[in-house]
Amino acid sequence: MSLIEVVDLSHSYGEREILKGLNLGIDKGEAFALIGPTGAGKTTLLRIMDLLEVPGAGEIYFDGKHVPRSGKQRLEIRRRMSFIHQKPQVFNLSVYDNVACGLRWRGEKRNRIANKVDHILEMVGLEGYRNRDARTLSGGEAQRVALARALVLEPEVLLLDEPTANLDPISTAKIEQLISNVARQQNTTMIMATHDMSQGQQLSDRIGVLLDGRLVQTGNATDIFRSPTNEAVAHFVGMENILEGVVVENNEGIALVNIDGYIIQAVSGYPVGKEVYACIRPEDITLLIPDGGQQTTVKSSARNSFQSEVTRVTTLGPLSRVEIDCGFRLIALVTRISAEELNLQAGKEVYATFKATGVHIIEKGSGQ
């Protein structure tokens, strides 16, 4: 049974429809990441699940019980959850008092408050900041205060809205480690909205993709990033090679897809005549250099190999993004060191190879 479940959930602000017919269940102890572009409805969904807003339509269930739209029972359920906002909010108080305020509002005894706050400050690495004015903290430190203030209440559900937005890489790594520790050690159910897809993969058990107010796909990281259900999801998760074609042959699950007169082999059950998209992740493409420029083929276990020409190379930190023309446009992602060793540059002749298992086929028009 799901700890939190939303059924046929829709919500609007004025005439603008934000959420459209969502159905989602979150299991107890699960870490769930909600990914999607800005404006997709992620924050609104979190606020509704935290019972900060009443949905325009649909129902919410918590621990198997229907959540009423108002009243004491709704407040009691809300006290079992904590929400961390995108922009950390600190009060004009010391770090200790910021973290302790929720316990005081709930009537905890002073000695229990001290024990709990000291423990949680140590957990988030702020034990030396006890008497510091919270308003003097850096963004990363303030976010750790917000996390401590939420965790000290020992919530069953922790909701996080873009928890590392606008933080530097070091602060981001610290917050991510804290979130990971909470999920692993305390078995807290976590629901996190993020536009950082690597963060979603790293911190979650399961991922949901929210596009234009609709939950278009849920699954583990492999499902989402390697087997998107439609073209929109494929674009969003960085499947840069999305090639339009038609299945011209299928032999026991090995499909031949015609892409502008070129044949790509893929593992697929789609029949002959089906219009499809062949999707290949850039990191699944291997680039090989022909020996002496004389050979017309290269040895490879990959079923797909195309003679190509490099059109552009862009360095992205430790990686290089290589655009190639092999009759159709492909983008490969290789390490910067490999790009230098292969002397990849515009005009360079290469062979682009990729396995049939590295091609994900989507029916054209699916999910639209």
Offer a concise description of the structure:
The protein has 368 residues and is of the alpha+beta class.
Helix percent reads 25-40%
Name the overall outline: globular
Give the helix tally.
Answer: 10
- Order of strands, widest sheet: 6-7-8-3-9-10
Main beta sheet: strand number and arrangement?
Answer: 6 strands, mixed
Average pLDDT, rounded to a whole number, is: 92
C-alpha termini separation = 31 Å
**How would you describe the oligomerization state of the chains in this entry?**
single chain
**Class by SSE composition:** alpha+beta
Radius of gyration based on Cα positions: 25 Å
The number of distinct β-strands equals: 20
Q: Into which percentage range does the β-strand content fall?
A: 35-45%
SSE topology string: EEEHEEHEHHHEHEHEEHHEEEEEEEEHEE
Write the layout of secondary structure elements.
Layout: E1 4-13, E2 16-26, E3 31-35, H1 42-49, E4 57-62, E5 65-66, H2 72-78, E6 81-84, H3 95-105, H4 110-123, H5 139-151, E7 157-161, H6 169-186, E8 189-194, H7 197-203, E9 206-211, E10 214-219, H8 221-226, H9 231-236, E11 241-251, E12 254-259, E13 262-267, E14 275-280, E15 286-288, E16 304-316, E17 319-325, E18 329-335, H10 336-341, E19 349-354, E20 359-363
Parallel strand pairs: 3-8, 3-9, 6-7, 7-8
Antiparallel strand pairs: 1-2, 1-4, 4-5, 9-10, 11-12, 11-14, 12-13, 14-20, 15-19, 16-17, 16-19, 17-18
Helix pairs in contact: 3-4, 3-5, 4-5, 5-6
Give an overview in words:
With 368 residues, the chain is an alpha+beta fold. 26% of the residues lie in helices and 36% in strands. It is built from ten helices and 20 strands. It has helices at 42-49, 72-78, 95-105, 110-123, 139-151, 169-186, 197-203, 221-226, 231-236, 336-341; strands spanning 4-13, 16-26, 31-35, 57-62, 65-66, 81-84, 157-161, 189-194, 206-211, 214-219, 241-251, 254-259, 262-267, 275-280, 286-288, 304-316, 319-325, 329-335, 349-354, 359-363. The strands form four sheets. It has a six-stranded mixed sheet, with helices on both faces. A hairpin with a 2-residue loop joins strand 4 and strand 5. Helix 3 packs across helix 4 and helix 5 (139-151) runs parallel beside helix 6 (169-186). The longest helix has 18 residues, at 169-186.
